[in-house]
Amino acid sequence: MQWLYHVIGQVGIFLICAQTLIHFRPRESYEKYLKLLLSVMLLIQLLQPLLTVLGGDEIAGTGVQAAEFAEEIRTVLEQAAVQTEQTEDEIQAVTDTAAEVTEETEPPDASDPVKIRVEIPEIEETEIKIR
């Protein structure tokens, strides 16, 4: 019975706040829209405890579903953190390897002579006819 008093108190506070909003509305043309919105909100507040009483198991099951969903999200975030760490390790390994290769292959100085070997295939003599 305590929950009923709680619901009645919430609805009473809501009605007082709603009437205050209607009284201090910015323009008179907004009154019908404001009343419609407040009426819908009041209906939702009144139906919520009724639905809890009539279909308590279904509504209570949403808490279990929310907990399962939160656990699933937590698992996915943990997997993403592990994958991020692995990717960062792989990037660091590739960066280290690239640095080692760069250190091993120093560019030649401009004063050092460069040896180039060029192979030219032999050209066979052929007859060329000019008309």
TrEMBL record:
Give the top-rank taxon of the lineage listed in the UniProt record for this protein. Bacteria
- Residue spans making up a coiled coil are 70-104
Going by the UniProt record, its keywords in alphabetical order are:
Coiled coil
From the Swiss-Prot or TrEMBL record, give the protein name. Answer: Stage III sporulation protein AF
Species of origin: Waltera intestinalis
Q: What is the lineage of its organism?
A: Bacteria, Bacillati, Bacillota, Clostridia, Lachnospirales
